[in-house]
Specification:
Elements: H1 2-18, E1 38-45, E2 48-56, E3 61-70, E4 75-88, E5 91-96, E6 104-109, E7 113-118, E8 123-130
Antiparallel strand pairs: 1-2, 1-8, 2-3, 3-4, 4-5, 5-6, 6-7, 7-8
Length: about 130
């Protein structure tokens, strides 16, 4: 009996030391800061407006959208181009999912302002603000 009790206690100790311990980290630290956000800028002209928008649909896909309205507010033209994106810090790299679309790059400053550049021709497209 004594031998069995000693064996059982040793097995219990071995079990306790071999069971891996894990903890859950704070999920907010690793979450994508851009997923679900929209960044917009609107140019206002005498004859209407031009709205440029980046809409982050989820953690890997975004849409580059433009919308032209006449002075009366009627939409004359709108486009939506799908992109995949990756980010590192304040740099966001957009890759087109459609042939013939430009590669884009966004540089975020102060958490609310994004300078959007067409990296195919190195021209700035717009400065967008987080909604």
């Amino acid at each position: 009996m004594k031998k069995t009790l000693k064996l059982m206690s040793m097995l219990l100790m071995m079990l306790l030391f071999t069971v891996p311990f894990s903890s859950c980290s704070d999920d907010d630290e690793d979450s994508n800061p851009y997923a679900g956000t929209t960044w917009t800028y609107e140019d206002i002209f005498d004859d209407g407006t031009l709205t440029t928008r980046i809409r982050f649909a989820n953690e890997t896909n975004a849409y580059y959208e433009t919308e032209i309205r006449n002075a009366g507010g009627t939409i004359i033209s709108n486009t939506s181009s799908p992109y995949s994106y990756t980010y590192s810090g304040d740099l966001i790299v957009f890759r087109p999912l459609q042939t013939g679309k430009a590669n884009l790059e966004g540089r975020v400053s102060e958490g609310v302002k994004m300078t959007l550049t067409n990296t195919s021709n190195n021209m700035q497209i717009a400065i967008l603000y987080r909604e």
